[in-house]
Design goal:
Elements: H1 2-12, H2 20-28, H3 32-57, H4 64-87
Helix pairs in contact: 1-3, 1-4, 2-3, 3-4
């Protein structure tokens, strides 16, 4: 039961503390699945920030506008999916970085 709510907080942290909470949960948790998800959440946020920054730089040549919109929406929708999966206690990995960890 405890890991369920840790996972929910971990996914929801994308909206209020995307670096601090996953790092804190990684350090205090003893469960391997929660640690794996915290690393995935941290990597996902880093990759999303990088992709949004690259897209913002590419706005000059207009190709960045659709990418910026897609990556911004993805940064909002993916954590919401993670929250729903955590509440339902369904195994789930972050896209893009799920297989890296």
């Amino acid at each position: 039961m405890e890991s369920k709510w840790l996972k929910v907080i971990l996914h929801a942290s994308a909206f209020f503390a995307p670096l601090l909470v996953p790092l804190f949960i990684f350090l205090i948790s003893t469960e391997e699945e929660v640690k794996r998800l915290s690393i995935q959440a941290l990597l996902f946020q880093g990759v999303m920030w990088l992709l949004v920054a690259i897209s913002a730089a590419l706005i000059i040549v207009l190709i960045g506008i659709p990418f910026l919109m897609i990556f911004s929406i993805m940064g909002i929708v993916v954590p919401i999916i993670g929250i729903i999966k955590a509440i339902n206690e369904t195994p789930w990995n972050y896209p893009i970085v799920g297989r890296w960890v």
